[in-house]
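Technical annex B. To support the medicinal chemistry partners, we prepared a structural model of the target in complex with protoporphyrin IX containing FE, based solely on the information shown next.
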Amino acid sequence: MNPIQSFKPLALAAALCAAAIGAGCAGGDPVANRTEGKTPAIIGIPSDSVEKFGGQAGIDVWVDDLFYYILADNRINTIFTTHGHVQRQMALNKELENMVMGGPAHYSGASMSAAHAELGLTLTQFNAVVEDAYLACDAARTPYHVCNQLIAALAPFERVIVSR
Ligand code: HEM
């Protein structure tokens, strides 16, 4: 192979890396790709998260507890009682949480952007749900590091759920 041909993929990778700054680009970077020692730069959801959560039964208990705390939370509960369909939301969250942690469930509800578009939610309201999620972990006796795996899996939705 001539040197120009072999150079092309590298140049493309470099260009993609440049375009991906901010989104994180670990290609070929020995520090970012390190798997032992310091924390890797790109953190995935461990493949045993659903199992650690107690399987679907554990997720179901956690979602039941989550909605207990949401409905008791005066910062946000009227949003749910006014605009929500709590039984439907609980059933769909049981699917969603399984799916985002890498489980086999199929999420059958609306996209997170469509489901929350009309609600005009703030970051403060989003964070209130996150706090309730941690309370649900305590109630379900889910270990903190396992709870964090679920929170990390849900965190990217903040960008489409918060709209003001
Ligand atoms: C990561 C955080 C969140 C997740 C995973 C989540 C998940 C969901 C799911 C699965 C649905 C059902 C979609 C459907 O009916 O097809 C839904 C709807 C809804 N969510 Fe969220 N949600 C989150 C944050 C919030 C926050 C912060 C609020 C308000 C404070 C909220 C209020 C609602 C309401 C009121 C609905 C019903 C909308 C409707 O039926 O028109 N959600 N959410």
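Notes passed to the chemistry partners:
The pocket of protoporphyrin IX containing FE is lined by residues 76, 79-80, 83-85, 88-89, 92-93, 96, 109-110, 115-116, 119, 121, 125-126, 129, 154, 157, 161 (CB under 6 Å).
The mean pLDDT is 83.
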